[in-house]
Design a protein that fits this description.
Elements (H helix, E strand, L loop, with lengths): L1 E6 L10 H4 L11 H9 L5 E6 L7 H6 L2 E5 L5 H13 L3 E5 L1 H5 L10 E3 L3 H13 L6 E2 L25 E4 L2 E2 L10 H5 L4 E2 L2 H13 L4 E5 L8 H17 L4 E7 L7 H9 L2 E9 L3 H6 L10 H10 L3 E8 L8 H12 L4 E5 L7 H8 L24 H15 L2 H14 L10 H17 L3 H14 L4 H30 L13
Parallel strand pairs: 1-2, 1-3, 3-4, 4-5, 5-6, 7-10, 10-11, 11-12, 12-13, 13-14
Antiparallel strand pairs: 8-9
Helix pairs in contact: 8-9, 9-10, 13-15, 13-16, 15-19, 16-18, 16-19, 17-18, 17-19, 18-19
Protein name: B12-binding domain-containing radical SAM protein
InterPro entries: BchE-like (IPR051198), Cobalamin-bd (IPR006158), DUF4070 (IPR025274), Elp3/MiaA/NifB-like_rSAM (IPR006638), HpnP-like (IPR034530), Methyltransferase_Class_B (IPR034466), rSAM (IPR007197), rSAM_horseshoe (IPR023404)
Keywords: Iron, Iron-sulfur, Metal-binding, S-adenosyl-L-methionine
Length: 512
Amino acid sequence: MNILLVYPNCPETFWNFRAALSYVSRKATLPPLGLLTVAAMLPASWERRLIDLNVRSLSDADISWADMVFIGGMIVQKDSALQVARRCKDMGKTVVGGGPLFNALTDDFAEVVDHFVLGEAEITLPMFLEDLAQGAPKREYASDVRPEITTVPIPEWRLINPRDYYVMPLQYSRGCPFNCEFCDIVLLNGRIPRTKPPEQMMAEVQALYDAGWRGGVFIVDDNFIGNTRAVKRFLPELIAWQKAHRYPFTFITEASVNLSDDAELMRLMSEANFNKVFLGIETPEESSLKECGKHQNTSRDLVQAVRTIQGHGMQVMAGFIVGFDSDTESTFDIQIRFIQTVGVVTAMVGLLNALPYTRLWHRLREEKRLLAETSGDNTDGRMNFIPKMDCATLLAGYRRIVAEIYSCRSYYRRIGTFLEHYTPTARRHWNGEQTLALCRSIVRLGVLSRHRLHYWRLVGKTLCTQVRALPEAIELAIMSEHFFRLRERLIREVDGCLEQSAPKEVLPAAGR
């Protein structure tokens, strides 16, 4: 049996960083961990190939080789996934769909997907494979069971060329103990974090090392610190391994703001070479945090929380949302001031959207305010529900935030603020790739760019006051090219939405 695993193309979004990737000659940010893991779960006698459309194109020869085509992806990849599925069906292939995209939008793929393997693959994929072996595979496999992840196999790294990617993904846990109204993590992975034992996780770390990878590793957990007791058992093992291997990896992850409450945990993460963490801050306004059930962010000084984490050697990246029912016209300036004050350089500000079957989705449907399905990209200027605030006012305010925080002046000022509160602790190995990125930044940003004065001020000040943070300063300067392009695109998209901001027909209140 020949299995072709296809990862659809990701459109231009906040997270693809294509403009910045050219500085290090990489094609995509990270490979599809889900499909690489599914590949390892297939029968050993089967042949498998993986095509990541963000790295290379899909040829007719690729499809002709396959007996079955497995497609997995996120909601934002829907259009590409539909094109791939139709093409494969037209060539007479059996198409199997799984992952968050197909869990959320099963009906949209009814005509082009033969089998849906939904829920967590550790449960439903073996069911499908068993029925397939008996010659009677069902149309759909689904389960609400939350399996332990102690038997998840090591991803099949041999199916990709690691040098196509900027960072490599690993997963330590699934699930998040919190229950934010807008978030679909509880639907996908549950509220009880399930973790891999240290020995299993270290085997995955070693396998990635053996595959030749050196550099950034993104632990793609819903909330890395969801089970702090387990994390504190794992991190000493990782620290010992890093020391023994001379720190070949730097780590990035996602966590909740209460990380700032645990000095021991931050110290362990710093010693393990974590240098970036993404936080869901959403808003500094208590009323909106309470509205969406983000209680872990309330009754605390969010500015101090961010600075505490920065002081432990981790750059804070963060997500922010506008469009809550509690938001007012002053919300936009409050968001801008907060982002600039705390020095969150990578600030993803998006419009609230109702992801399928979340608590927010159900509430808005009952209130007859739900308009359509989400695009999966909350930074594209579109909302899929009727907001309490006047829609044009909300879009104009969102436009103002994006235009301000990703203006050259504000962006470089934010880098300076971040560096003032940042204590660099990560151990890095300067290599040819970083030298190339530095040289390209000097030419593109320091000579050719109209923003070159900002670049040289940043470099000069960093050299004089905090030379150990120079790699971070250069990296963030390089990222400016992506964010400035993103700014212009978002402004165009929001302007387009403002021209057609009249509400559409709402979805009926009944439903799943």
